[in-house]
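Structure (tokenized):
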């Protein structure tokens, strides 16, 4: 439980949203992991119901979003908007999943473009989103965890 668990799940043939694969993974992780386990669902593109399912079982579950947000449908946008702000991450998933349809090779240089698209979907400024996601990344990956609750509530605890 000391280290975060990073889970990268893609759908199987015919499962556009990856729901079947994530459901199988959810039940496996639930069987073997402590509910307090820090985890990062990398490249999340599931449903709002899945967000709630993971959050209800694993309180330290973070959801990473890539440039694919640019192409999300209504179901996926609802899921993104369901993720609590203190559990959202942005990522490029280089060299794949570019935010730009005319760019075949993605790079970390496009993280700002990912941030713009995610912020737009969440109806906030890019600066707000970057501040939130940097704090979240530090809380997830930094070994000193006791300060994160204070950071997320503005120090009011």
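Design, position by position:
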């Amino acid at each position: 439980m000391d280290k975060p668990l990073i889970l990268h799940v893609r759908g199987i043939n015919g499962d556009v949203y990856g729901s079947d694969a994530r459901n199988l993974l959810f039940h496996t992780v639930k069987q073997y992991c402590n509910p307090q386990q820090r985890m990062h669902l990398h490249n999340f593109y599931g449903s709002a119901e899945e967000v709630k399912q993971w959050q209800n079982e694993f309180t330290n579950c973070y959801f990473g979003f890539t440039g694919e947000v640019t192409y999300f449908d209504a179901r996926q946008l609802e899921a993104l908007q369901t993720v609590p702000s203190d559990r959202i991450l942005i990522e490029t998933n280089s060299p794949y999943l570019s935010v730009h349809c005319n760019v075949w090779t993605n790079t970390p240089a496009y993280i700002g473009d990912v941030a713009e698209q995610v912020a737009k979907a969440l109806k906030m400024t890019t600066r707000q989103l970057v501040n939130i996601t940097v704090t979240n990344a530090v809380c997830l990956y930094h070994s000193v965890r006791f300060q994160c609750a204070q950071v997320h509530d503005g120090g009011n605890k």
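Reviewer-requested clarification: The chain is about 40% helix and 10% strand. Residues 35 and 107 are 34 Å apart (CA to CA).
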